[in-house]
Amino acid sequence: DWTMGAYRAEAVARIREQVGDAKVICGLSGGVDSSVAAVLIHEAIGDQLTCVFVDHGLLRLGEAEEVVTMFRDHYNIPLIHADESERFLSALEGISDPETKRKTIGRLFIDVFQHYADGIEGAAFLAQGTLYPDVIESVSFSGGPSVTIKSHHNVGGLPEKMGLKLVEPLRELFKDEVRALGRELGLPPSFIGRHPFPGPGLAIRCPGEITREKLEILRRADAVFIDQIRKHGLYDEIWQAFVAILPVRTVGVMGDGRTYDFACALRAVTSVDGMTADYYPFSHEFLSETATRLVGEVRGINRVTYDITSKPPGTIEWE
Ligand code: XMP
């Protein structure tokens, strides 16, 4: 792509000019935006960049390993893998209120990130994968009345607190342009086309109290559901798909025995921007096959339901 090739060269030059020989910290989430920003900045300033990946223990199956393999081994970008899952899960023990969960994760995330960033000597800049729509949204909402439905998980306010200047090389781009830039930079197509994943991770797909057992079930169930969607060639038609584990056990039969395991809900939606959404009209065959696989392959699940709520009035995530 000629346009993105030119943009890439221009962006690299601008980053070099802004940063000089200072050090830059970039928080990696595993999402497309922060990943594209990191690879672009690394191209511009090489090992003056250090990435910090906070692993809160609420990621999907194999996700942390994928991030580490891609950035550290494939791109050779200096990466700190902050495995703080124990700390996050302990802090979340006994909490079932959705907003308290989000706030607990958000606060701890900032503490942990700051702790690791403080260890990077001489850092003067913080890189963020802010996009153009984020820039406009924060302007048009300021001053107006606002209703917070869910508090979002990000590192807002952190740069000032840490005395860091911002590097935001994606500020002029829309999502599809970021994807094009990512392809231009050689990120794998499967990575660029990934469904969005929320900052608080699996915590908001686990209504009620979060336990290690529920998270483990959720990881396995989610992997089966996504595998089904890929096998049927539906992944790219769907905006986002995942499994939520319900805080309820139900009775079932398996062989000669009775089971008393968790019920889960499948969620899959189409959307343009995540603001509104419709549930995906899977065929009955697809749903039956998926339910059979989930109950057969995931220990701890014995009942499967499909969430057919649109947004509004529902939200995409369960919390
Ligand atoms: P809802 O559930 O509000 O989600 O309909 C809309 C989109 O936003 C994602 N989401 C988040 N993303 N931090 C994020 O980075 C968050 O705290 C967060 N909460 C929801 C959600 O996955 C969906 O794509």
From TrEMBL:
Functional summary from the UniProt entry: Catalyzes the synthesis of GMP from XMP.
Protein name stated in the entry: GMP synthase [glutamine-hydrolyzing]
Residues that coordinate or bind ATP: S29, G30, G31, V32, D33, S34, S35
UniProt keyword list: ATP-binding, Glutamine amidotransferase, GMP biosynthesis, Ligase, Nucleotide-binding, Purine biosynthesis
Source organism (scientific name): Rhabdonatronobacter sediminivivens
GO cellular component: cytosol
GO molecular function: ATP binding; GMP synthase activity
Gene that produces this protein: guaA
Domain GMPS ATP-PPase positions: 2-194
Class in the EC hierarchy, top level: ligase
Shown part of the complete sequence: 204 to 522 of 522
Assembly: Homodimer.
Reactions that this protein is recorded to catalyse: XMP + L-glutamine + ATP + H2O = GMP + L-glutamate + AMP + diphosphate + 2 H(+)
Presence of the UniProt keyword Amino-acid biosynthesis in the record: no
Enzyme Commission no: 6.3.5.2
This protein's pathway: Purine metabolism; GMP biosynthesis; GMP from XMP (L-Gln route): step 1/1
Superkingdom of this protein's organism: Bacteria
